Amino acid sequence: MQTPATTKNPIYFGWYVCAASIFIGFVAIGARNSFGVFVVPMSDEFGWNRFTISVAAALGVLVSGLVQPFMGQVFDRTGGRKLILISLVILGGSTIMLSLTFHVLFLVFMFGIVASIAQGGPALSNTAALMSRWFKRKRATAISINSAALSLGGLVMVPFSMYLLQATNWRIAWVGLGVIVLLSLPLAYFFIHERPSQRGLYPDGEPEPLTEAGGGRNEATGPLEVETWKESFKSAPIWQMAASYCVCGATTFILSVHFIPFAIEERGISGSTAATIFGYMMGLNIIGSLGAGILADKIGGIKNWLALVYLMRGMAYILLITVDSVAGLWIFASVAGFSWVATLPLTSSLTADVYGLKALGTISGITFMFHQIGGFGSVLLAGLLFDITGSYTLPFAIVGALLFPAALSAFTIKERKYSTRYQPAVPAPAGGD
Amino acid sequence: MAFFFNFILAHQGDSADPELLHWIKERLDGIFGPEPWVIVAIMGFAVLAIPVSVGLLYLLQANRRASAELRVDQDRLDREKAP
Description:
The complex is a heterodimer of chains A (433) and B (83).
Chain A: H1 4-7, H2 13-33, H3 35-46, H4 50-78, H5 80-97, H6 104-119, H7 124-134, H8 139-167, H9 170-183, H10 185-191, E1 217-218, H11 229-232, H12 236-267, H13 271-299, H14 302-322, H15 326-339, H16 343-355, H17 360-389, H18 393-411, H19 415-418, E2 426-427
Antiparallel strand pairs in A: 1-2
Chain B: H1 2-11, H2 18-32, H3 36-81
């Protein structure tokens, strides 16, 4: 399959796939997260109140969460390349079309339904599945780079939209964002390929792995490798991962929405300091995500790292609730920041290692849905409990307490028994694989 | 119901929190000045530089590999021609 001449290429093609996927996610997330920037100017022009425009945003969040398992299934059946290319065309087109908004129903349809469904194509659960095909030994690293870049995308593209809006108007700003999404098409076309074998390569860019005897070998397969997503839900690891991922969603969403109000109202700091701490935490999550992926690949024991991340976040929540000072908030941000996105590459990588690649898009889509459900539940709970108690302490304590069973759930996954990383390779019959 | 939609809107983008955006804007204004076009140009250039650099890097590598393979072929032909 692979000749020695081609393996001399210093950069493995999988890294180009990774780079393309990063850029696609970067602009797609940016276009989505920028919606908040458009709320005021669009409301002002059409005389909409905040509730009216919220319908489009709310529908978008719900649709993008619900559509993910189906997009995962499309990914598994037709391949990531077609799905991503078509989704980008629709996403770019619908973002440009938003500039023609003339009625709130148009906005609801175009943003809440069309763009939100299209967002599901290049979503992280699918690109993580794509990375899993291209990388095995460096799987968690590749997924972590991918997810860290997405966080960065939100932080770069949203201010970009804000300034573009300030320099022009909301219609031109939507067109600008749509054009940027469409500009990712050539990169996707040239670099998004389904699997290394299409280019005569092996995962991680390795030459054909050899046994000690010098013969070829087949890929190791895990005892839980599945052909369909339904099979995976008959075993314990997926439930353990999904349950802890649900807690992950609950503990990150709640902070996204309520951390700044909590810091201002209950810790008595200024909005600017609260935002600085939140920004610091968002910056750290990029480092945390990268570090978790690299360490998991280098040292192994993905489930242990996953458990550690949940445990760290649980400790951070204890600090958040108990230390009533600005210093406490900074310490919380330091600990929680590292663990914010780190669960994603670890969970995606472990899912691929345990269940294989055939139904990975769908399985990842379903676990992502669990994450979103946890997030919705926690934000609702926090809002309701705040109205009742006048404080965020109780909801933070409840979701924070869930992190410890989540850590236990991750820690008790039988990774050595089920992960392909720990399975002996099957010797190939003479004559190759 | 209004609360439900409002908090979803508030969540609509982790990095789109108004306080955080305001803070980022203040920092960027401090660095580049308050003129929006300057920042749009710089950020736009930085964003578009990503796919261009990836494409250029790939082309550069492909060219290098092609010339290396050409050299290997040429050497082999030379060796075959040699008495």
